[in-house]
Each structure stands twice: as C-alpha cells, then as structure tokens.
Amino acid sequence: MRSRICVALSGGVDSAVAAHLLLESGHAVEAVHMRTWQSEDGAGECPWQEDRENARAVAEHLGVPFRVESLISHYRQHVVEPLVAGYGAGRTPNPDILCNRFVKFGFLLEGALAAGCDFLATGHYCRMEHLPSGEHVLRRGADPTKDQCYFLSAVRRKALPHILFPVGRLTKKRVREIARAIGLPNAERKDSQDICFLGGKVTVRDFLGRYLPDRPGDILDREGKILGRHRGLFRHTLGQRKGLAIPSNRDFERYVVVGKDLARNALTIAFESDRKNGLWNDSAELRDLNFLCEPIRGGRRLLTEPRFRDPPVAALIRFREDDTAHVHFETPQRALAEGQTLAFYDGDRLLGGGTYYTRMEKADQQ
To answer: Which of 50, 139, 204, 352 has the fewest beta carbons under 10 Å from its own?
Structure first.
C-alpha cells in the first residue's frame, strides 16, 4: 500500500539510503532535516550547516520535497538542560536517548503526523515489524556492529506504529554499495560518532564547563588518603582512567575512578586490579522504566545491554508496580553510573529500558 512518508534526513548516508528504498517501494516520500542546536553563543561546535546542505543535496538528487524543521528550543529544554543538570548532580544521562524520546520521535514525529504523513522514517539500524495482529515489534539491526536499538529504549510505545527503519535489515557495507550505485552525493561521507552539538571539536567535559562552574575538591584513595585535587566532579566518570594526573606507584597500571561523593565533593580512585575496588556491580536499581511492549510485572529473566555496545548479559529483573525495577546480573558489570541507561531484550526484541538511580551492590572484581 502506498503511504506518505516523512524521512528525517540527517545529512548522512544511512537516512539518504532509507529515503531511496522507500521511493523504490513506491511510497510518497518527503524529506525533513531536523535542526537541533545553534552554536552562536560559543557552546558547542555543531556542524549544522554542513549537515543541512548534505541533506538538501540528497533530497534534490532523489527528487523529493525538502524542508528544515527547527527544534532548537525543544532540544535545549529536553536534552541539553537535563544533560547539564544531570552531570551537575553526579549522574551520567545519555543525550541521544533523550533526543530520540522527546525530539526526534516526539516533536518531529508529531509534526509529521499533523502534516498528514503516515510514518516517520530514519536511518537507524533497527528492524521494525508492524504485525497483522496490530503489534509493533522493534528488533536489533541485521548488522551487529551498527545496531542502534539501545538508543531507542526510551521511545514512547505509542510512537512505534508510525516509525519505519528501512536500512535495519541491511549491513553498513550494503548501504554504502547502494549509495554509490545510485550516485548519492554523500555516498562517501564518514559516519558521525559525535553528539550533534559537539561536532567532534569539543569534549563533553569542555561543553559542560561552559554551564557548570568548576568546584575543586579532593581526590582520595579508598582509605580516605588525599592523593590530589580535581577541578569538578562533573569532569569525571566512573571507570575513567585518563586525565587524573595522579602518579601511580605500580608499573603499567593507572588509577581508575571508582566513586563520587557529592556531599564531600570528593573523587575516589583505586587500581583496576584491586579486588573490592567498588567498580563492579552484581545488581542495580532502575527507575523511569519505559516499555515498548505490554508493561512487565514481577520477575523475568531477560537479556540486557548495561551500556551501549556492552556485550549482552542475562539478568533477573524484578519489575515493580511503580515503574522501578531491581536487576541482578548473571555476571558482574563494570562502572555502571547513575543516570546511564540499561536496555532489556527478549532475544533480539527490544522490550524497553530504564535508568540507574542508586549505587549498586558491589562484587569482587572478576
């Protein structure tokens, strides 16, 4: 059946090939480029002009209508401000997860539907199945090296009926081949690995430093001995090895961040090889649960992705009525931080996710 589909062209090759595949299938395709950030205030180096012109060139090549949708205020409110506030409170929120939930599959999708489109399509490497039963199932992408389901674990379930991922059944290699074969102007453009408002020129810590004042404090070992000073807790993450500037008294081994004490404004470090260094977790507490299926209650053994691209690990998850959960991992996990996201799966089907919100039960280092 011919549908009217809005394709979110990012400027990259994946969304460009997604638009081509939909055209090839006979659908009425129109393109939108989502502008989410402006760097006039010097905060961030978002390459939005280059992205926009690449997206425009793709639309012209494919012969589809093109427009730019400014969602800057929404992005600032729902992504950047929570990111800054989270780091300031000692948490580690994920901006891509926030963007997908509130902006791309929130405001952008709502605008596409209001304009009369049936679906919003993107270049995500995920597989969406719209079953005859009316169920909408989101599965991992066919290319395991590019799968992006993790970043969709907080998308609202009500959005699923209106989402398409045309390249989810392809490998990245095949996407490049298609782009070259049809002469896409961005066929050789490199993939972006950066948060969109950073643009590869600014680190997350530097960006946050434009909003959060430095608050120097002590760096301690696990016995409380002062080893040095830090500029601000937001500049450090659990498991961090680099940038501590603390000399090690062990050959070929550096200190690693194992804890933050907001009340004392102190950073705790230890050696990776030390048993009971506080870096490994048997279990975790989740809140802000989001389900892409019927809500789950009670105990369920599922596969989890504790962080993006972490190897899948089985866990017993006890889901509570208040949309919190307790997770017990079959194997201990390293450096799980408050505010990070855990995604949970039934096989390759993404069921949802939640955020860590308390320090976890520690395990001996494995």
So the answer is: 50
CATH no. for residue 12?
3.40.50.620
The reply to whether 198 falls in a domain is no
Q: Which residues are catalytic?
A: 99, 196
Kindly report, residue by residue over 224-252, the tens digit of the pLDDT.
Answer: 999 999 999 999 999 999 889 898 878 77
- Asked if the model's pLDDT at residue 196 lies above 70, the reply is no
299-305, Cβ contacts within 8 angstroms, sequence gap of 24 or more: 302/344, 302/345, 302/346, 302/351, 303/344, 303/345, 303/346, 303/347, 304/329, 304/342, 304/343, 304/344, 304/345, 305/149, 305/150, 305/342, 305/343, 305/344, 305/345
End of a domain among 131, 164, 181? 181
Global pTM reads 0.92
Confirm whether 202 is domain-assigned. Answer: no
Per-residue pLDDT at 152: 98
